[in-house]
C-alpha cells in the first residue's frame, strides 16, 4: 500500500485539493492522508511557523475515504508537521502531492508559491514531492476534465515512488492547461520561464495593496513552461533544491580577496590550503 500525503495552499476546503484526492483515489493500492491549511495561504512561499503553536485538527473531507487534518499554518508547516507529528517511523508518507492550485505556477512563480513549497518541503524531508497547478485563474470553480487528465501522471509518479526511482533533491512542478481532455496536446519536459511581473501598489482602505500585471506571454522561449502551457501542453519541470551555482563557485576562487585570504591562511598553517576544509576537523 502506497501512503500518499496531500497538501495545498488554497486551504483544505478548496475544490482543487478535492479533485486531486478524487484522482488519486482512482489508483490501485493507495492510502491517502490530507493535511492542509485551515485557510487560504496563497503566495506564502516556503514560510514556516516558529512563534505560534501548530495543532492539526481532524477535518471532514467531502465524504471521501481519506483521513484529513486542518492546520493553522502554511503548506510547508503542513508537510513538516505531518511528517513529525502524524506519522511514525514505520508509516512515513511515500510521496507528497501538493495542489491542485487555482492558477498556474510557472517560471519564477515557484519562489512565491505555497503549492510548490509543499512539494519542496517533502523533498527536504527525503520524500518525493510533486506540485500541481491548473490554469483556471479566471474560471476557478471549473475543473473540467482535470481528474481524468492528471490521473495517468499521478499513476506514473506513484509507480516511480514505489520503485524508489524518483530523483532525490528534486521536486516536480506540473502545470495543466484549462482545456478539455481531447484538446490537451501532450505532456512535455519544460524549463522554468524567466518571467517578470510588473508590481504595482495601489493605495486603498488600510494601506497599499499589491497588484501584479501578468508577464508578456507573446514571445516566450519554446522550451519554457509558459510557452508550452499557453499552447495546450502539460508542462513538467524538475526543480532542484540545491540552488548553488557551482560554476560560479569555482570562478570565485580567482577573486583577489579570496586568493589573498588563502595565501595568508597557507602561510599561517604551514602551507595547508585553506580550501581543503574537509580535513580540518
Automatic annotation (TrEMBL):
InterPro entries: SurE, SurE-like_Pase/nucleotidase, SurE-like_sf. This is 5'-nucleotidase SurE. It catalyses: a ribonucleoside 5'-phosphate + H2O = a ribonucleoside + phosphate. Its cofactor is a divalent metal cation. Keywords: Cytoplasm, Hydrolase, Metal-binding, Nucleotide-binding. Its main location: cytoplasm. It holds the Pfam family SurE. Gene3D superfamilies: Survival protein SurE-like phosphatase/nucleotidase (3.40.1210.10). It is found in: Cytoplasm. Belongs to the SurE nucleotidase family. Residues 4-198 form the Survival protein SurE-like phosphatase/nucleotidase domain. It comes from Brevibacillus composti. A divalent metal cation binds at residues 9-10, 42, 101. Its EC number is 3.1.3.5. It comes from the Bacteria. Nucleotidase that shows phosphatase activity on nucleoside 5'-monophosphates. GO terms for molecular function: 5'-nucleotidase activity; metal ion binding; nucleotide binding. Binds 1 divalent metal cation per subunit. It is an enzyme of class 3 (hydrolase). GO terms for cellular component: cytoplasm.
Amino acid at each position: 500500500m502506497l501512503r500518499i500525503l496531500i497538501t495545498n495552499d488554497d486551504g483544505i476546503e478548496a475544490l482543487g485539493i478535492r479533485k486531486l484526492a478524487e484522482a488519486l483515489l482512482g489508483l490501485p493500492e493507495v492510502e491517502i492522508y490530507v493535511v492542509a491549511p485551515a485557510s487560504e495561504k496563497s503566495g506564502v512561499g516556503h514560510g514556516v511557523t516558529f512563534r505560534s503553536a501548530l495543532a492539526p485538527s481532524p477535518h471532514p473531507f467531502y465524504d471521501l475515504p481519506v483521513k484529513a487534518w486542518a492546520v493553522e499554518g502554511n503548506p510547508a508547516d503542513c508537510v513538516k508537521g505531518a511528517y513529525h507529528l502524524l506519522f511514525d517511523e514505520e508509516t512515513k508518507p511515500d510521496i507528497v502531492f501538493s495542489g491542485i492550485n487555482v492558477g498556474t505556477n510557472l517560471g519564477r512563480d515557484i519562489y512565491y508559491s505555497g503549492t510548490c513549497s509543499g512539494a519542496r518541503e517533502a523533498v527536504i524531508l527525503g520524500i518525493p514531492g510533486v506540485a500541481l497547478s491548473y490554469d483556471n485563474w479566471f474560471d476557478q470553480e471549473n475543473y473540467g476534465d482535470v481528474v481524468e487528465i492528471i490521473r495517468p501522471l499521478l499513476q506514473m509518479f506513484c509507480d516511480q515512488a514505489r520503485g524508489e526511482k524518483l530523483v532525490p533533491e528534486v521536486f516536480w512542478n506540473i502545470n495543466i492547461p484549462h482545456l478539455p481532455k481531447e484538446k490537451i496536446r501532450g505532456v512535455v519536459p519544460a524549463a522554468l520561464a524567466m518571467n517578470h511581473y510588473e508590481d504595482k501598489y495601489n493605495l486603498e482602505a488600510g494601506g497599499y495593496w499589491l497588484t501584479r500585471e501578468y508577464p508578456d506571454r507573446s514571445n516566450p522561449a519554446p522550451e519554457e513552461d509558459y510557452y508550452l502551457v499557453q499552447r495546450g501542453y502539460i508542462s513538467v519541470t524538475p526543480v532542484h533544491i540545491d540552488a548553488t551555482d557551482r560554476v560560479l563557485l569555482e570562478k570565485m576562487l580567482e577573486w583577489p580577496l579570496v586568493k589573498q585570504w588563502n595565501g595568508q591562511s597557507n602561510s599561517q598553517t604551514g602551507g595547508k590550503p585553506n580550501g581543503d576544509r574537509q580535513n580540518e576537523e
